[in-house]
Amino acid sequence: MSTRMTADRGASAPGRQGRERVADVNDVHLCLQSFGDDADAALLLIAGATWSMDWWDDELCRRLAAGGRHVLRYDQRDTGRSSHDPAGAPTYTGADLVRDAVGILDHEGIDSAHVMGLSSGGGVAQHLALTAPHRVASLVLISTSPAVPAASGELRLPPASSAVRETFDDPPPEPDWSDPDDVARYVVDAERPYAGSLGFDEARVREVARRVVERTLDVRASLTNFWLAADGEPVPGTLADIAAPTLILHGTADPCFPYEHAEALAREIPHTTLVPLEGGGHEMPAAVFHDIVVEAVLAHTRRD
């Protein structure tokens, strides 16, 4: 169960929802938003590469809050309204992103929280569980892959689909960064190869893309810098050393991290529950999965 520090570190008044504010963390500004009652168990959401907190579905956050969780989502560096480095010149590492998650908890006066990470955010969550285990009450890993070595040895996992690999090997031309509509189209097209067998929800992705472009301080940096940042110092330990109870939610049609990646996590991390999302891709769980996700996350985070 998540607990709160006795010292007042700027936590906001209880009971309100959707409050957006800026935290001064590790010499940068990180924009965050909360849903639900501050007195409830904290659930920290960590988004994937280049994703601002806008990608966490509003309705999903509200439903988790209605289930008695204090939901926190935030813009990582170079996304949304958080601090940005110049495009092409990130000054942070992956290790800094892990420290930022701890800094968010410190700012909010939260001693330990349930941590839910998606894609590369799931990697940040795994590193956090190893480097600061006392801050992680439990893990929820969505559409992610092993981010630390396995105790059983090298994992041989299937690669991404050819369509996904092509986005890295032969990226499309950059948009006109001064044209918000062109950038939004670019974001939508970038997400298209990651859809599962249920199809690509273009209307939803387009709506989120518009909001991302409107909120982001430097959208070019947001969409490019993550891939240039160094990993930082290695994290000690293996997947078997993750002590936090872990829930894995993974699309069975994920074209980036095929389902075998989730099965490997479930084998290697102790105290793990694996829930398949039938036909889901490498994406924020679609509305059709919200009942499954909410039920599973609330049950999992109800543990002491």
From TrEMBL:
- What InterPro entries would the database entry show? AB_hydrolase, AB_hydrolase_1, AB_hydrolase_fold
Q: What are the record keywords, sorted? A: Hydrolase
One Pfam family linked to the record: Abhydrolase_1
Biological process GO annotation list?
Answer: glycerolipid catabolic process
Indicate the segments forming the AB hydrolase-1 domain, all copies.
Answer: 43-283
GO terms, molecular function:
triacylglycerol lipase activity
Does Coiled coil count among this protein's keywords? no
Q: What is this protein called?
A: Alpha/beta hydrolase fold protein
Q: Which organism is it from?
A: Beutenbergia cavernae (strain ATCC BAA-8 / DSM 12333 / CCUG 43141 / JCM 11478 / NBRC 16432 / NCIMB 13614 / HKI 0122)
Q: Does the keyword Transferase apply?
A: no
Region feature (Disordered): 1-20
